[in-house]
Amino acid sequence: MEISNKKRTGLLFLTMMLLCFQIQSKAQEDSTYKEIPVGVILNMGSWVGKTIHSCIIIALSEFYKVNGHYQTRLLLQNRDTQGETLHALHSAQITLSRLLMLSCLPAFELLEKKKVQAIIGSDSTAEAKFLAVLGDEARIPILSLSPTPSSHNHPYFLQIAQDETIQFKGIAAMAESFGWKNLVIICENTGNGREMATLIVNGLVEKGISVTYTSLFSTSAGDELVQEELQKLSSMQTKVFVMHTSPSVASHLLLNAKELGMME
């Protein structure tokens, strides 16, 4: 269940407005605009990255339209990850040091060369965890777009996306209302996917609902492997499935399920 563009725009607008208010007091004595560099780390080639970047631009434009008297201006320093961290997370051979480098290299560059005063980014849970530590070390705000909270022990880490874990209570409540006693969970076989699967299971167990099987699909799995796993699911007595995956993986699974006659 993804956050709507309208909600993302609202959250980003509010966050940028608060950031503008925070830094305004630093430049009251200046007669000209004082530029405050803010880093933006996104996968600009993805639909989500493009949407978030557009929302940030719109939020800034609207804010300064209303508050033209402000003597500060946020200067965005964009860094395109080109999906490198995401691809690394899906690789079985990725090392911790390699993942750390991919996650934090753009942030280090922004801190050292551009002297940014805040960083917006980390739309994946894994990236968020690394940047949370970096924010503490550099003592600058990390405005996270990750849907799962990681800010309890990191005072400079601010989650500005809606908490994705709320939806799992809704899933559990829906299952309870329909009287479903046994379910199968389908998620992606990634760090974030496994974490989501655990959260879904916990929410269902709290309602007294049993999870008979958790199926983790590789994002790179071909049709043969997908159909093999789907046939395994089809042979089970449990016929209620809860799927939590990216749109691309969901589409791949559903097309194969239809081909096997599981959607009739």
Automatic annotation (TrEMBL):
Record flagged with keyword Cell inner membrane: no
Keyword Transmembrane: yes
Protein localization: Membrane
Annotated signal peptide: 1-27
UniProt keyword list: Membrane, Signal, Transmembrane, Transmembrane helix
InterPro entries: ANF_lig-bd_rcpt, Ionotropic_Glu_rcpt, Peripla_BP_I
Ranges of residues in domain Receptor ligand binding region: 55-264
Source organism of the structure: Centaurea solstitialis
Main subcellular location of this protein, as a coarse class: membrane
A GO cellular component entry from the record: membrane
SUPFAM superfamilies: Periplasmic binding protein-like I
Entry-linked Pfam families: ANF_receptor
Protein name: Receptor ligand binding region domain-containing protein
